[in-house]
Write a structure and sequence with these properties.
heterodimer, A: 98 residues, 3 helices, 2 strands, B: Amidase signature (AS) enzymes, 37% helix, globular
């Protein structure tokens, strides 16, 4: 069994997570991610009597709230935390190229 | 320096009512203690200005409840309006929340005074608080050792008697394990007992906010004001709030207690086992019964945690993208670069590791192979716990396999942080309440904690046993006095 992921495998999961890695980090994660994923693989060997899933440990029924307009945060306040803005607009780089 | 903060909150309350002291005296004393113990690194932000201002405002208010005017520290993943909330991460180190978490509204409504935001593992991911962007907090019992995590700053500031109360959060033991390492009382309530609105989400189906305090009674007092249905958290329970102190002081004769065999297996160090055995003898001598039982699949809880917590985290932390708040790189070329460079620079090593593994485990076919299987085992663990509670009142064991270890240990081992929490994770999987109460000291005078696990929404019975153990053992849990 190999003891680390390939560089491409690490770059694949980093891409899924939208995380840029330095070369040094890639090397480190090749070993560390392999160790974690091997450990997680143990779950495949567990035998179960039921395939019932537990998504959240609450017994009460969750009911969606009424779709009513409520008090909202002040847009001017919200903009204070925005890194790049233009008036009340959040500015982001060009997303679609012609 | 005055010593009011060494008194019980009821004694402090008496002095406030008689106008012998004012809230500002408590705030000044807390700030002085925090300054004197700066090297503990328990706080990320100390709000001296805000706390002083609030204390002066309170001079005109009636002392209407026992928590009035008492300083409290809040873990830095719980949002506080106009007070920086970082989650101990570079990606949020300039973030000023626009609203209060529900629990923060509640403590403010009781006129408690927020003194600052406590240090923690980055986004609560870790078991020692060493993944904090602001450096690790230290253990007041031995400053070369970890305080535990992820609520390490909250545990350290109570242990060192800087403030009487703190809020923590517990996704896989993050209240109980640092409480154990630091010798304080920490409660992770039943999932749904306390609103998670305003707690920066890590593992949404596991996260729960809870009280941390010097003793059992005061811990219960704080839980009294934290719970209740909140329409902004649809998983919060409609169950009525209750007085959690009501059974404190009662006899435990006839109480039926169970210990999972896994909790006394060879993963636990001999000194921790020996303390547990002393407590078991005490309980038996006091008329309780103690049986050893099996909880199905409990040994798989760490693996489930890795899958469920990392999966939920990868999804929850997708919101940190450099667009609406937090750290953002300058002049990105295209949206992809904005996302990936911001996240690459903004997140620390442990967080990146967990997001990547979580993303991988939830991608394509893997979701079925890993995530679905984990949810099935999770269901079986919860069922097994609930079955045990048909026969037993409480389940006990240790909270940690060892006492606090040295700072810097195990940082490069991605599995160590999970194994540190092997005894506390099962409770989050089952959604049950769990707590720590100190049960003695090991080598080097380091605290050892007893874990008490209750049935769903039965925190009151846990406090009953915890207070009994506390009273009988009568430990001195103040590190300054013991040294």
């Amino acid at each position: 069994m190999k003891d680390k992921l390939t560089r491409e495998e690490v770059l694949h999961v980093a891409r899924l997570a939208r995380i840029n890695l330095t070369d040094e980090e890639i090397e480190k994660y090749q070993v560390q991610l392999k160790k974690l994923l091997d450990d997680v693989d143990k779950i495949k060997e567990v035998d179960l009597a039921s395939d019932e899933e537990l998504i959240t440990p609450i017994d009460e029924e969750t009911v969606l709230r009424e779709d009513e307009a409520g008090e909202m945060l002040d847009p001017e306040e919200i903009m204070k935390n925005v890194p790049v803005s233009n008036g009340n607009f959040v500015e982001v780089p060009v997303m679609i190229n012609e | 320096m005055s010593k009011y903060l060494d008194l019980s909150v009821e004694e402090i309350n008496g002095l406030l009512k008689e106008k012998k002291i004012k809230p500002i005296d408590l705030v000044e004393e807390a700030l002085e203690r925090i300054e004197n113990d700066k090297d503990l690194n328990a706080f990320i932000t100390v709000d001296s200005e805000g706390a002083r201002k609030r204390a002066l405002e309170l001079e005109n208010e009636e002392v209407d409840n026992v928590l009035f005017g008492i300083p409290i520290a809040v873990k830095d993943n719980i949002v506080t309006k106009d007070l920086r909330t970082t989650c101990a991460s570079h990606i949020l180190d300039n973030f000023i929340p626009l609203y209060d978490a529900t629990v923060v509204e509640k403590i403010k409504a009781k006129n408690m005074i927020i003194i600052g935001k406590t240090n923690m593992d980055e986004f609560a991911m870790g078991s020692t608080s060493q993944t904090s962007y602001f450096g690790a907090p230290h253990n007041p019992w031995d400053r070369k050792r970890v305080a535990g995590g992820s609520s390490g700053g909250s545990a350290a500031c109570i242990s060192a008697r800087l403030v009487p109360f703190a809020l923590g959060s517990d996704t896989g033991g993050s209240i109980r394990q640092p409480s154990s390492y630091c010798g304080i009382v920490g409660m992770k309530p039943t999932y749904g007992r306390v609103s998670r609105y305003g707690l920066v989400a890590f593992g949404s189906s596991l996260d729960q906010i809870g009280p941390m305090a010097r003793n059992v009674y005061e811990n219960a007092l704080l839980l009294n004001i934290l719970c209740g249905r909140d329409d902004r958290d649809l998983t919060s329970s409609h169950k009525k709030t209750e007085d959690f102190t009501r059974m404190i002081g009662e006899d435990i004769k006839g109480m039926k207690i169970a210990i999972p065999n896994f909790f006394v297996s060879d993963i636990v160090s001999p000194e921790v086992l020996s303390k547990l055995n002393e407590v078991v003898e005490l309980l038996k001598d006091s008329g309780a019964t103690v049986d050893y039982i099996d909880i199905d699949y409990i040994e798989n809880a760490v693996t489930l945690y890795q899958i469920i917590a990392m999966g939920e985290a990868s999804s929850n932390l997708a919101r940190f993208d450099g667009v609406r708040y937090g750290y953002s790189i300058e002049d990105p070329v295209g949206i992809d670069e904005l996302y990936s460079l911001t996240r690459g620079e903004g997140f620390g090593e442990e967080v990146k590791r967990r997001i990547m593994v979580g993303s991988y485990l939830l991608s394509g076919e893997n979701a079925k192979i890993y995530y679905s299987k984990a949810l099935q085992i999770r269901n079986a663990i919860r069922k097994s716990f609930l079955k045990a509670f048909e026969k037993y009142d409480l389940i006990i064991g240790p909270n940690a396999t060892t006492t606090a270890y040295n700072l810097g240990e195990g940082l490069d081992d991605p599995l160590k942080t999970f194994l540190d929490d092997i005894l506390v994770i099962p409770v989050n999987m089952a959604g049950l309440p769990g707590m720590n109460v100190p049960m003695g000291f090991g080598e080097g005078n380091l605290p050892i904690g007893l874990q008490i696990i209750g049935n769903s929404f039965d925190e009151a019975t846990m406090y009953k046993l915890a207070s009994f153990v506390e009273r009988k053992l009568d430990l001195n849990n103040d590190p300054k006095e013991v040294k």
